[in-house]
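Example 3.2
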Amino acid sequence: MSLVLAAVSVAGCTYDRGEGPPQIHFAEFRVAPPDGNTVEVCHAYTCQMKTTFYFRPKDIQDITAEMRKVKKGDTPFQERRAIAYAIAMIEKKVGAKLGINDRAGMQFGGTGDPTQQDCVDEATNTTSYLLILQSHGLLKYHTVGIPMTKGDLLKATLQGDPVKYWPHWTAVIEEKKTRQRFAVDSWIYANGENPAVVEVEKWYIKDIDNLPKATN
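Structure, written as tokens:
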């Protein structure tokens, strides 16, 4: 983690790897990438705890049905809406099985708590879940990108507010035709609520008090 934060400080406000497979992120945080229908779920803040979750055929059927139900058309925009609902459903399934009942945003004292997740946990897990969707042919218009982070450590230091400007992580998808990338941010809301899906340029523009709305 210290190497990652060092990279953030060197890069200024954004540590955005842009290109590269999501596996680079998994390797950085020592998390196993999805293997078939099995994922390693991060929790307790910054992947301090990692627990295996297996998507049963019934889980995949439920997720597929949910995505089809919420789509109002065969477009990239509607697929992003469906992704938001799918991620929310997955978080409910995973949370019920693993005892994760994550509250919205940052919880002081949450580190080491197996029921809570920080933005690194959320970005890593959401990326795993997106890869599951992709492997089952549920992403027609998008591919799964490598997670990115934004923050401003200089402001955090000068203004004495380490939370407001601290680097914040998110999962990323890329629209195939336009190459536009979108943040898929589950950290903003409680476990099982729809994440925000928004262009990376519009995500976390100013600080932690100006985060995007959930995608419904």
